[in-house]
Write a structure and sequence with these properties.
Layout (H helix, E strand, L loop, with lengths): L1 H12 L16 H27 L8 H18 L1 H7 L8 H35 L4 H4 L2 H18 L18 H5 L5 H43 L3 H43 L6 H12 L1 H11 L2 H20 L1
Helix pairs in contact: 2-3, 2-4, 2-12, 2-13, 3-5, 3-12, 5-7, 5-9, 9-10, 10-11, 10-12
Length: 331
Amino acid sequence: LNMSSSVMNISEHLSCPLGFGHYNAVDICILETVVIVLLTFLIIAGNLTVIFVFHCAPLLHHYTTSYFIQTMAYADLFVGVSCLVPTLSLLHYSTGVHESLTCQVFGYIISVLKSVSMACLACISVDRYLAITKPLSYNQLVTPCRLRICIILIWIYSCLIFLPSFFGWGKPGYHGDIFEWCATSWLTNAYFTGFIVCLLYAPAAFVICFTYFHIFKICRQHTKEINDRRARFPSHEVDAAGETGHSPDRRYAMVLFRITSVFYVLWLPYIIYFLLESSRVLENPALSFLTTWLAISNSFCNCVIYSLSNSVFRLGLRRLKHKLWSVPNVF
């Protein structure tokens, strides 16, 4: 009797969106726990690696994108740390505060951090666009002071845009409901959702698509010009220039393709479900959980794509690995 009342008490507060949980032998949401614990570990480990590499490779600080990549790494790291809240709840560790407060604060923090991460992705795309389209005036346009101001504004804007969630406007965007109160009592609002999508998700998605599409076009055009020149003047010099110019352009275009593809694959399902749920067109706990944590997984993918595509970063990673391997030899 005590065991059944204990299970009943837990199920009142804990929700298993995927529908597999509260087994007699193991009273936890098994699939949800596996997904969240795995993502939490990957996000924290991946972004800690990025942060340590930046400390080990001073050359990385000479790149303007490093400001945004580091900001994104810290925001994504805090996403991973914040994910410990639902992880501990799934494993029946008490958070020590009221469930509704935990739910609201956690939802707000996750939404703000995801917003900062997404805004940094958009800023990186704008930075690369300016570097390619305005190479002569780039250093005057993009200065360290302006970059710092931009990063401060990103944090302020992200904090402000989700603040109405504390004043009854509705759920800010976290839908992977582990807490029962989040799923049943804290609902999304169509107007608040439209507000967030119009002021955050849609502009960021448009900026990323616009800038990378134009960069991709410029890379293609540059490659075509080199090939035409090589066909017109098949000399050794032009051939050599074509070989050195073609490969980096092609690689850069492929990196851009991967960046945009991963961004849209991970974020579009979340944004679409966010709109459908708020309009009361579709309500599915499993779909809600999967789309939310798919978007959160972008916090791990960011550090892999943006950092490992940089040759200087890879050099810093090798230095970090060398330092870690040399530590035991000291003792």
